[in-house]
Amino acid sequence: xxxxxxxxxxIDRIACPWLIKHFVDSEAEFIFVPKEQVFEExxxxxxxxxxIPGAEYSHYGEECTFDYVVKKHQVTDKAVxxxxxxxxxxxxxRFDLAPxxxxxxxxxxxxxxxxxxxxxxxxxxxxxxxxxxxxxxxxQNEVHTWESKL
Length: 150
Hints:
Largest sheet: 3 strands, parallel
Domain ChrB C-terminal: 3-135
Strand order of the largest sheet: 2-1-3
Structural class: mainly alpha
Strand content: 5-15%
Protein name: Chromate resistance protein
Radius of gyration: 16 Å
InterPro entries: ChrB_C
Number of domains: 1
Number of strands: 3
Distance between the termini: 59 Å
């Protein structure tokens, strides 16, 4: 299935493709276009619009598009549910929801500066979400401390 959204992806527009590829449709294809072209191109290409007002896959109340994908596709993986809180905090500027949210926002904004090509940015972002998933699944309780022996 093809999915389409606004160009210059950040939080939800990278997190949702990661979630979709891993838990909904491993063959999914993602397309980025100027925001005013999303719905027209969605019709033309037979793509599902996401993370844009007026799309089914969008924000609802306090929740972001990632939350909607989790609920719509009944994703119950505990690590994904932890990531959902982090993504929601980053995407809605509610850094109080999870301590990782502010860092996720900073990394996402930095990716947007470092990449001009949306698909290249998505590819790098997917790797970052793989790492976030590994942390949430296997390393959440790991701590990093270092004591000086001076």
